[in-house]
Write a structure and sequence with these properties.
Strand content: under 5%
CATH class: Mainly Alpha
Structural class: mainly alpha
Number of helices: 5
CATH architecture: Up-down Bundle
Radius of gyration: 18 Å
Distance between the termini: 68 Å
Amino acid sequence: MPNTTEPMAINIGISESDREAIAKGLSHLLADTYTLYLKTHNFHWNVTGPMFQTLHLLFETQYNELALAVDLIAERIRALGVPAPGTYQEFAELSAIPEAKGVPTADEMIRLLVEGQETVVRTARSIFPTVDQANDEPTADLLTQRMQVHEKNAWMLRSLLG
């Protein structure tokens, strides 16, 4: 009877070192995405002013999309055979997106979210060389999709500022 306590080897055509390097990059993307989710949700709750209804609904749409995205990213990390980070401490250490202090004005919320969306795009883009070198098409597809969403969100938010 085989020993079932040892994990089965992963043989998907990507070396262990490449899988680990890709997962490391995806862990940063996960942390950025989760941090942006928290920031967007926070702003959804706390936005005020003449654009309240517009921003409240826009922020809700964006944080709901981000909530789904963190699952996709974490599951890709797991498919590569690496544990996904999942604590506030890990996310704080891995994320390039700073937390917001206090309750910013509506315009400042928009600016901070544009910066966050663009940070996620840059993080995703930074992983591509490793992904391309490893011929990891599923991760490349995920990164492309994430970049499209975040670039569009940044544009939509930016357009609110005139």
